[in-house]
Amino acid sequence: MINLGVYNTLEILRETEPGLYLGDDEENVVLLPHRYKPEQFEIGDMLEVFVYLDYEERPVATTLTPYVTLNNFGYLHCSDVNQYGAFMDWGVQKQLFVPFKEQARPMKVGNWYIIHLSLDEKTDRLVGSSKTNKFLNNDNVTLEKFDEVDILVTHLTDLGANVIINGIHKGLIFVDEIFEDIRTGDRMKAFIKRVRDDKKIDVVLQAPGYRSIEPNANFILDELKAAGGFLPLHDKSAPDDIKNELGMSKKSFKRAIGTLYKDKQITIKEDGISLLADE
Question: PANTHER family recorded for this chain (predicted)?
């Protein structure tokens, strides 16, 4: 079966004037236009292609990389709005349609939005939606403290950064846990800090608790070496100075330099920390 909105691995059946015809083991066929065909190929080769609907609503294959795939989220640019809805640039030739009923707020040309891609069951068309909450669910959370997860930053508020976790859950990084520049649309690794009784999920960018000590200690060692063996930071430094210099909280910094000091890798003085001579 050839599926819309995802990558399909298909066999090259024949070459024609419009392009290469690709097929699956159920005799379904789709066209890969000439502009996307590989420089070298043979009939019978297998190709991985993305399949969507062209301007005439026919399945078509491409080797372009879409910015979002079926049942996932992407950060997309709005390139047009007309009387039917908005159209998003999603990395393939035909733009992705977001009808007005699927817009969390009226879209404007030039703005960027978090978009979920789904298949409309009535029309069998791929459609986008900025009403992301309806595609997320925290009812059955199997995540635990310290779990590493993939996040997508959806928007920033006074509380912190709202994120999508592993493409299925909602979470929040509290503002006092953010020690680096993050923006809407950023994708990164993060860690579960807490799953609350009300199913809300707290997320941090550094491994919480004792698990962050070793990575932070190694990071500080690298920074010390890059700086010639000295950093003008110590346990009395202002939290903002530590955050600006190293991108971590003062608590994490003190814990890490305490580890390094006990391991006799650094000295701690009034004006900063230094690598020991044998480092």
Answer: CONSERVED VIRULENCE FACTOR B
> Which secondary-structure segment (H or E) carries 239?
helix 239-246
CA distance 94 to 64: 12
Token pair listed for 181: 């520049």
pTM for this predicted structure: 0.79
User: 186 pLDDT band (50/70/90 cuts)?
Assistant: very high
Identify the residue whose tokens are 């459609």.
127
Query: Across residues 157-162, what is the average pLDDT?
Result: 96
More confident residue, 148 or 176: 148
For 34: left if phi > 0, alpha if psi spans -120 to 50, otherwise beta; the answer is: alpha
Q: What is each CA distance from 27 to 14, 30, 125, 130, 182, in whole angstroms?
A: 13, 10, 22, 36, 47
Length of the chain: 279
User: Of 175, 167, 163, whose CA–CA distance to 200 is shortest?
Assistant: 163
Mean pLDDT of 146-167: 96
With a cut of 50, say whether residue 279 has pLDDT above it. no
Q: How many CB atoms lie within 10 A of CB 197?
A: 6
Domains of the chain: 7-62 (2.40.50.140), 73-132 (2.40.50.140), 148-205 (2.40.50.140), 210-275 (1.10.10.10)
Instruction: Map tokens 């919480």 to a residue.
Output: 208
Residue-level pLDDT at 272 = 92
Q: Quote the pLDDT of residue 199.
A: 92
